[in-house]
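Project outcomes to date are best conveyed with an example. Our students and postdoctoral researchers have been running inverse folding experiments weekly, and each run begins with a structure described purely in tokens. The record below, which covers 139 residues, was selected by the lab manager from last quarter's runs and is presented without edits.
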């Protein structure tokens, strides 16, 4: 299975009054992992936008298993779980320094026209992305 990992440095501002990472910040870490994966296959969101497309999130989910605290050095592991030519589903695991699973989740994305937000087929409109997604998808 093709995956990438990105180290995260927990900033104090990312923690809440309980001293743990505030739950919404994990979604930002998911984005860091997703961006790392996309760059690892030779693309950027900026290049997609230059071509006139965007890739909005249409579904996102996170399951919290163990808190991450300031001073810890977690990492996010990301892979492309599903791809059908229209929808892309990325899966994420945030692991602590002891390889314990802290958060797992996924996000589902589509491609849309930048000007109208009209959904389009990745297979048809972004064929280079399609070819790479087909190579690395798990399912």
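After processing, the design step wrote out the following sequence:
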């Amino acid at each position: 299975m093709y995956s990438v990992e990105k180290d995260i440095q927990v900033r104090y501002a990312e923690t809440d009054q309980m001293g743990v990472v505030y739950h919404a910040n994990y979604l930002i870490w998911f984005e860091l992992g997703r961006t790392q994966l996309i760059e690892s296959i030779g693309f950027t969101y900026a290049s997609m936008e230059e071509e006139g497309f965007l890739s909005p999130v249409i579904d996102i989910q996170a399951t919290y298993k163990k808190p991450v605290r300031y001073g810890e050095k977690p990492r996010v592991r990301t892979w492309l779980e599903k791809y059908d030519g229209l929808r892309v589903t990325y899966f994420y695991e945030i692991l602590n320094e002891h390889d314990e699973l802290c958060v797992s989740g996924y996000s589902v994305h589509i491609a849309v026209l930048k000007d109208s937000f009209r959904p389009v087929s990745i297979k048809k409109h972004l064929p280079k992305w399609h070819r790479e997604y087909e190579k690395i998808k798990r399912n």
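The helical segments are 25-40, 45-50, 122-125, 127-136. Strands lie at 4-7, 53-54, 57-64, 75-83, 88-95, 101-109, 111-113, 119-120. The training component of this project remains on track.
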